[in-house]
Amino acid sequence: MPNNGQETVLVGSRGPRLSGQVVLVTGAGQGIGQSIALRAAEEGAHVICVDIREETARATAASIGHTSTSLQADVADEQSVAALFTEVRRMGPLDHLCNVAGVAGPQGAVVDVRPDEWDETVRVNLRGPYLMSRAAVPLLIETGGSIVNIASALGHIGWRREAAYGPTKAALIQFTKSLALDYAPRIRANSISPGAVHTPMIQAVLDETGADPDTYGAIHPLTRKLIPPRAIADACIFLLSRDATFITGADLPVDCGMLATGRTTQELTQ
Ligand SMILES: NC(=O)c1ccc[n+]([C@@H]2O[C@H](COP(=O)([O-])OP(=O)(O)OC[C@H]3O[C@@H](n4cnc5c(N)ncnc54)[C@H](O)[C@@H]3O)[C@@H](O)[C@H]2O)c1
């Protein structure tokens, strides 16, 4: 309602932030990818859910409804990504790519990590986002879109028994900067570095090590709990949205202060 001749602005009434946009999310079958897919749909996007496990991608898309589609692909396989993008191009313009699919890799000291385990971790966590971005860039240039890569706090700090995973995430943060610089001003590219997020991936680590969620969550100064996947999704929506128009080449920690400590789990909990 007009007030002294001035337009009234309703705080928080801007509406959905991705209305009418198309967002492709890899690893959408569970965990952080699933949460990003659901949040993007809440923000008005059409979501293309991609996962190597077809049935899980289909289930996420089904839970969203008619504004979502599911497609199966191995993000680290060149032919699979080519076939995926034949389908994506057929569907029309693409506004955003979220590279979320990843693997935890082996939990072991350097000499205990087998070369095939190392290669598989690099293949999915680094070659995957590279192949997906390479295929998506021509479409994103058309729409002036953006990319978000899910890296990790372990891409910033050393961590025992993470000799394959940590290096892939450090490299992914650097790769994101390459994307940002190579394709400015048409495409923005940013990464998110989560702390420990309560997903099936971290549950598997808890099961393997026998740690309970609260003990593991103690690495986070802010909450002393594992981070809910939705917290990463909220940050991702922000980076995709117009609110982040002037942000590119950045890495955003969503880690409840973990990186601010500069310390490792072992040091914090001993
Ligand atoms: N959970 C955490 O604590 C945490 C912390 C930091 C970063 N991350 C990163 O966030 C991302 C998601 O992690 P999450 O915890 O949700 O994992 P998750 O294991 O729960 O889910 C990963 C999803 O990716 C899919 N996937 C795996 N390999 C694939 C491939 N080659 N092609 C297509 N899909 C594939 C899986 O099927 C699964 O649905 C990963 O990149 C992970 O490294 C996770």
TrEMBL record:
Belongs to the short-chain dehydrogenases/reductases (SDR) family. SUPFAM superfamilies: NAD(P)-binding Rossmann-fold domains (SSF51735). PANTHER family: 3-OXOACYL-[ACYL-CARRIER-PROTEIN] REDUCTASE FABG, SHORT-CHAIN DEHYDROGENASES/REDUCTASES FAMILY MEMBER. This is Unannotated protein. GO terms for molecular function: oxidoreductase activity, acting on the CH-OH group of donors, NAD or NADP as acceptor. It comes from freshwater metagenome. Keywords: Oxidoreductase. The keyword Oxidoreductase applies.
